[in-house]
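Figure 3 (text version): structure tokens given as input.
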């Protein structure tokens, strides 16, 4: 694992400990890393990055999956409070399918906003995972919760390194690399990096199938078959780079998140 984890807050001597960003060492796909995926809704990570997360997990990296909202708006007949329970269970099962550790943030579905409260909660999530890499939504995706999640993650993943902000978990000593995943249907998204997920595509589909309540909801509300949709998107991205199935990403190109190493599992 490339990152040591700086102890939280104050040292025994009462002085603030701080690992300067210049010491950050994010490693590369050749090293074992910690990967945090953050989705706005319980099925987002699986749909857009499930094959990539499965590849990381298969290759021995430690994978953490967090979801911001409770998904309680996503059904025509199941009452919201009952649906939230179902969706939490479905999300947990999907994470367990690749041995990832799940985190349920529980914000109200459809009302996710970047504010002081959500930033603090996300700082705790980032510190919990202490990631080398974060994968989350593209800032301009179609759903307001996706857009909010992207901005919350961006802000919190920087502030998670600040040890003066005390919390349950130690401050991170690295501002992680941040990759944005494909948009729904790929509209408005110009991919920079493709990951061949042919070998983990079955696993990705098993993860998506865990979200049985959403398969029903999307059929009834949007007239779409989620499994067909996920298959077609991965196939389309695969055709663009000459493999059977692919997922694609862009990188947040901002200091100090950009590193010379290759971080996505795309060329092995
Ligand atoms: Zn979503």
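Below: residues designed for each position.
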């Amino acid at each position: 694992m490339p990152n040591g984890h700086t102890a939280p807050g104050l040292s025994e001597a009462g002085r603030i400990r701080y690992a300067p960003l210049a010491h950050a060492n994010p490693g590369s796909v050749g090293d074992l890393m910690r990967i945090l995926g953050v989705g706005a809704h319980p099925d987002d990570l699986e749909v857009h990055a499930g094959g990539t997360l499965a590849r990381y997990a298969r290759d021995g990296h430690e994978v953490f999956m967090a979801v911001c909202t409770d998904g309680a708006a996503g059904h025509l007949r199941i009452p919201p409070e009952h649906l939230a329970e179902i969706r939490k269970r479905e999300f947990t099962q999907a994470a367990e399918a690749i041995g990832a550790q799940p985190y349920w943030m529980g914000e109200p579905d459809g009302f996710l906003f970047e504010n002081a409260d959500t930033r603090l909660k996300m700082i705790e999530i980032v510190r919990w995972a202490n990631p080398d890499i974060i994968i989350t939504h593209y800032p301009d995706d179609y759903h307001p919760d996706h857009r909010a999640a992207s901005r919350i993650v961006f802000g919190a993943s920087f502030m998670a390194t600040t040890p003066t902000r005390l919390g349950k978990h130690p401050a991170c000593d690295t501002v992680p690399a941040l990759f944005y995943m494909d948009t729904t249907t790929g509209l408005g998204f110009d991919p920079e990096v493709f990951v061949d997920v042919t070998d983990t595509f079955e696993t990705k589909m098993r993860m998506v199938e865990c979200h049985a309540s959403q398969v029903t909801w999307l059929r009834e509300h949007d007239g779409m078959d989620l499994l067909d949709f996920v298959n077609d998107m991965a196939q389309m991205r695969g055709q663009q780079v000459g493999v059977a199935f692919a997922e694609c990403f862009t990188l947040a190109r901002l200091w100090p998140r950009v590193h010379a190493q290759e971080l996505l599992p795309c060329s092995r």
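The chain has seven helices and seven strands.
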